[in-house]
Automatic annotation (TrEMBL):
Gene Ontology terms for molecular function: metallopeptidase activity; zinc ion binding
Domain spans labelled Peptidase metallopeptidase: 199-381
Native species: Sorangium cellulosum
Protein name (record): Peptidase metallopeptidase domain-containing protein
Chain positions covered by the region annotation Disordered: 102-123
InterPro entries associated with the record: MetalloPept_cat_dom_sf, Peptidase_Metallo
One Gene Ontology biological process: proteolysis
């Protein structure tokens, strides 16, 4: 049965290779060399009558090559792509991304890519382990929820926002926090990075992370100015820490909705104090890339350094998980999931990525010296340390 309750669609008979792969055989080389496609395969594989098939276009069983074309088509549309399809698409060389975009635009038979399209949220199809399925249901019942742009979101670890499909990915299939492969720094402290297929998730070298601050979402000029100034300070703090570059595209602050031309917008969203602020990780689809600020952020009784809150959220934007999900943190600290992570250094109770919980952590949410070491292991030295020559 499909998640919607209907039977599986027809099984495709043996048929020629998809036309797109015939026209562009270099896609076949990509298929064999991709590090992400094996995860797509695992999610959509169906064993039937001793043969392996793959679920494509929501309810049809097709070949491995059909699955590649289907997943790339979904990944080409960031507003409708699940995180894995989007990551697969972004793994393509630039010229092949254009091939996929062109084929998707010109072929009305391509699978739908809107938020309600089959396949978005059908990750439950891939959950065959009853223990994992039970864990997903337990989290759905326990985690706080709110609606974001028409989508029900679950709040894990206090500020991680997951839709239903992402929640299925989030559930740990195995404890996979790896020890640091480099000596810990003074005091034995550090950061936690994200792994995908055994590789650290990070922005490409030289990539400028652009953002705007949506003025119309804030409750007045003072809040807008505060958010804008604090974002500038927080981004500069990270730029002084490691080799990343942020740029505020101020001319887009007056946009009514999510503007093109920036990686993410910063906006006020009243979730009644469910979180102070929330962000995203680099591998999430474009539609999920935004920094959200609750009105409680502007309260005189906030209890945390306001710039520090944004430093923490920008740590997520750079690909760093919560420090307190690791062993060594107080048991009262929230830590639903520690899978697919890697310890860049040993546990740091004062890390910018550590909540104030269990008597440890810092309300300043400052970047520690060993946060610097962990961040530089991922992004290198700050760009300001280099003299650029033509």
């Amino acid at each position: 049965m499909t998640p919607g309750g209907g039977d599986l669609g027809p099984i495709r008979p043996e048929e020629p290779r998809p036309a797109l792969l015939v026209a562009h055989p270099e896609l076949l080389a990509f298929l064999d060399g991709s590090t992400i496609f094996p995860r797509v395969e695992a999610r959509h594989r169906v064993e039937l009558d001793g043969r392996t098939h793959y679920l494509v276009r929501g309810d049809t069983l097709g070949s491995r090559e059909d699955l590649l074309v289907d997943a790339l088509a979904r990944g080409a549309a960031p507003e409708g792509a699940d995180a894995l399809s989007r990551a697969l698409f972004l793994e393509l060389p630039g010229h092949l991304q254009e091939v996929i975009r062109g084929a998707t635009r010109s072929d009305p038979g391509q699978p739908p890519t809107g938020p309600g399209a089959p396949g978005r949220g059908d990750m439950a199809m891939a959950i065959t382990d009853p223990v994992i399925a039970q864990k997903v249901e337990e989290l759905k019942a326990r985690l706080p929820t709110f609606e974001l742009d028409g989508t029900l979101m679950y709040v894990a670890e206090g500020d991680l926002l997951l839709d239903e499909a992402q929640l299925a990915d989030y559930v740990p299939r195995a404890a996979n926090v790896e020890p640091p492969n480099l000596p810990a720094g003074p005091g034995g402290e550090g950061l936690v990075g994200i792994l995908q297929d055994g590789k650290l998730v990070r922005w490409p070298p030289g990539f400028v992370i652009t953002y705007c601050v949506l003025r119309s979402t804030f409750r007045g000029e003072r809040e807008y100015a505060t958010a804008r100034a604090n974002m500038l300070t927080a981004t500069r703090d990270w730029e002084a820490t490691c080799g990343v570059s942020f740029r505020h595209v101020a001319e887009l602050d007056g946009s009514d909705g999510r503007p093109e031309g920036v990686v993410f917008p910063v906006r006020l969203l009243d979730v009644d104090g469910l979180f102070i602020a929330a962000a995203f990780f680099p591998h999430e689809p474009a539609s999920r890339r935004q920094v959200l600020i609750d009105p409680s952020y502007f309260s005189p009784s906030l209890g945390f350094d306001a710039v520090g809150v944004l430093r923490h959220e920008l740590g997520h934007v750079l690909g760093f998980r919560h420090e307190h999900i690791r062993s060594g943190a107080p048991p009262v600290c929230p830590k639903e999931d520690a899978s697919q992570t890697i310890d860049l250094t040993a546990y740091d109770p004062r890390s910018v990525m550590h909540y104030y919980c269990g008597g440890v952590g810092s309300r300043d949410l400052a970047i520690t010296e060993v946060d610097v070491q962990g961040a530089q292991r991922v992004y290198g030295m700050p760009l300001s340390r280099f003299r650029l020559v033509a």
